[in-house]
Write a structure and sequence with these properties.
The complex is a heterodimer of chains A (226) and B (188). Chain A has 226 residues and is of the alpha/beta class. Chain A contains twelve helices and seven strands. In chain A, 58% of the residues lie in helices and 8% in strands. With 188 residues, chain B is mainly alpha-helical. In chain B, helix 1 packs antiparallel against helix 2 and helix 7 packs antiparallel against helix 8. The longest helix of chain B is centred in the last third of the chain and has 24 residues. In chain B, 47% of the residues are buried. The chains are: A alpha/beta (226), B mainly alpha (188). At the A-B interface, helix 1, helix 2, helix 3, helix 6 and helix 7 of A face helix 3, helix 8, helix 9 and helix 10 of B.
Chain lengths: 226, 188
């Protein structure tokens, strides 16, 4: 059975685009579970419920948890999370270690590793770069911080080894695959609207914080021959 | 407080005070950017507070219609006098005095008339999100940034989505072809 883990950033960008409904059909296509950890639930349900702006979205997500479309993982992940936090936040140093990530993001990765999930969905950039290409993150830090950055090779190698089987995806790929499987067909009333639809969906996710570039969106449209 | 942070904050405060004297909103905005590098590296609350306040003040100075409020003078004094005193305190290594006067800015702003006060605090909240997006741009994760600046991830994602952060070459770690191949293998 293929299971996946969602970080809060992916759920938030889907929620803000009113696309949480795709989780139900996509879960059927996966044939596995959509896991979230406790820290993510705090971020996407508990916190917005105390405010005004994203209360409705939080209720929708709560409903997904109630219905089992999203599955909350309850077991303790402290040991695994702390180990990963240490590696991530001691990977790069300027005058001091740069604390790059927070607990919720790392807890999601810890869950993905513990369950050996088929994919780890994260829309924000830093966690993705730490897993997939820490050299690129190093280059980014050097360019943006205008100071000498030291990379701790041991910690970076240890992190890379731990996360070597982690497959990162974003809400954009979930939407793109959903499009390919026809879940958005109800919005296509003319064939020439296909490009408009997919372009709108992918730009929608980008403009709501998913770390996908305009060029990647163009590539996606070309992939779909649009 | 680390010497580097202290010296950078002193430099920013000095430039900000001069910018306020010259009524130069552009210079104020530029000044708040100078501490973002420190905010990203050290993630120090003082640096972050100063960056947010200076940026918010710049945005308020930009909007000339705010000067029509009766309590514009109270606002101006609250900012100018407290920044000056904070600067002097920090120059004497009096970190407590510096912190007190930075916090006092917010307390004193509560004395302005209600409508103006409402705008000021909205601008301050938006300034937090704006500065947070700069820290994210510098490479710190969204969640960590949200935590540092005291903003929620939802608002921060909404804001960063409208920037070009995702379009820089450093943001692309794998082709979308490879990602969709994986997605196709999982979702059937």
């Amino acid at each position: 059975m293929n299971n996946v883990v969602f970080d809060s950033s992916t759920i938030i960008s889907l929620a803000m685009q009113d696309l949480l409904w795709i989780l139900e059909p996509m879960k059927k296509m996966l044939g596995g579970e959509f896991y979230v950890c406790e820290a993510v639930k705090r971020e996407v349900v508990d916190k917005p419920l105390t405010g005004k702006k994203f209360k409705y979205e939080a209720l929708f997500i709560m409903n997904m948890l109630e219905k089992g479309i999203l599955k909350l993982y309850h077991d303790d992940l402290t040991v695994e999370t702390n180990k990963l936090m240490f590696l991530c936040n001691h990977a790069f140093k300027a005058e001091d270690w740069i604390k790059l990530v927070d607990e919720a993001e790392v807890q999601s990765l810890a869950l993905a590793l513990k369950l050996n999930t088929a994919a780890y969905f994260v829309d924000e950039r830093t966690m993705r770069l730490l897993i997939e290409d820490p050299k690129l993150l190093y280059a980014l830090l050097k360019k943006k911080l205008h100071t000498k950055i030291d990379a701790n090779r041991d910690n970076i190698i240890a992190l890379k080894k731990l996360a070597s089987n982690v497959n990162v995806l974003r809400s954009s790929e979930l939407i793109l695959r959903g499009y390919e499987l026809g879940i958005f067909d109800k919005f296509i009333f003319r064939e020439d609207m296909r490009k408009v639809l997919l372009d709108g969906l992918l730009w929608g996710t980008k403009l709501r914080g998913c770390s996908i570039s305009g060029n990647e969106i163009d590539d996606a449209l070309r992939l779909e021959k649009l | 407080m680390e010497d580097k942070i202290k010296n950078d904050i002193l430099s920013v405060l000095k430039d900000s005070i001069n910018a306020i004297k010259q009524d130069d909103a552009t210079k104020l905005k530029d000044t708040s950017d100078h501490v973002i590098h420190d905010a990203s590296i050290f993630q120090d609350e003082h640096t972050i507070s100063v960056a947010v306040i200076i940026y918010a003040v710049a945005k308020i100075f930009e909007r000339l219609r705010y000067r029509e409020y009766k309590s514009w003078g109270i606002f101006h004094r609250a900012i100018f006098e407290n920044l000056n005193t904070a600067y002097e305190a920090l120059g004497k290594d009096n970190v407590e005095g510096f912190e007190y006067h930075i916090h006092k800015i917010i307390q004193d702003l509560n004395k302005v008339e209600e409508k103006f006060r409402k705008y000021i605090f909205e601008v301050i909240e938006r300034a937090k999100v704006s500065k947070a997006s700069r820290v994210y741009e510098h490479g710190v994760s969204l969640g960590r940034t949200a935590q540092l600046l005291g903003v929620n991830e939802w608002e921060l994602m909404e804001y960063v989505g409208g920037t070009g952060i995702a379009d820089v070459k450093f943001s692309i770690s794998k082709s979308i072809d490879k990602r969709i191949k994986l997605a196709r293998s999982l979702f059937k």
